[in-house]
Amino acid sequence: LSQARAGIISTVEVLKVMEAFVNEPNYTVWSDLSCNLGILSTLLSHTDFYEEIQVFVKDVFSPIGERLGWDAKPGEGHLDALLRGLVLGKLGKAGHKATLEEARRRFKDHVEGKHILSADLRSPVYVTILKHGDSTTLDTMLKLHKQADMQEEKNRIERVLGAISQPELIQKVLTFALSEEVRPQDTVSVIGGVAGGSKQGRKAAWKFVRDNWEELYNRYQGGFLISRLIKV
């Protein structure tokens, strides 16, 4: 990937190498693949190839997704749980039909209190249903945020809200970031999630930061959070 980014080899060569990892069982390797594919997806979101890279993601990640399934198996380790969350999140965001349907079913049961999602599955499920959701989905997520009695769950929701796709809902998430519902130290996570969520989100987050720069700068007074905000 470094060679492709430097213009020494074609990105096509990188994708061919990635295809060779379909039977890879190791979480660290998949994490690296996921990160690198994320970089490519971000670049390709400005081209006509964005939908094609999503198809590629589904092709590469679906075999490991089918092997892992949704539920933990006896004797599994911590890395297996991390891998499951990573793979399901990647497939869900890319619009893998079976993953999206199962995520919606499990989310409905979670909201209704029939079957609470395990901590490992919450982020991938939340990301999936938001990415392909509407205003009702966002309202449900904000309600879950309000009801959460653990800060860990509030932070988990804050980090994924930026996955929502529609411009008017992206604005709603950005407004929420500066509201009293979000701790000042967590505002950056919400804005960062929007900036990393989509092409529309990047533009909206950049404009939002410029429009609210004075308030944000005064809030963080040149501390590490302002540098983190600038970085995202």
UniProtKB/TrEMBL annotation:
Residues 3-231 form the ERAP1-like C-terminal domain. Pfam families: ERAP1_C. GO terms for cellular component: cytoplasm; extracellular space; membrane. It comes from the Eukaryota. Gene3D superfamilies: 1.25.50.20. One of its GO terms (biological process) is peptide catabolic process. Transmembrane segments: none annotated. InterPro entries: ERAP1-like_C_dom, Peptidase_M1_aminopeptidases. Belongs to the peptidase M1 family. PANTHER family: PROTEASE M1 ZINC METALLOPROTEASE, PUROMYCIN-SENSITIVE AMINOPEPTIDASE-RELATED. This is PSA aminopeptidase. The gene is Npepps.
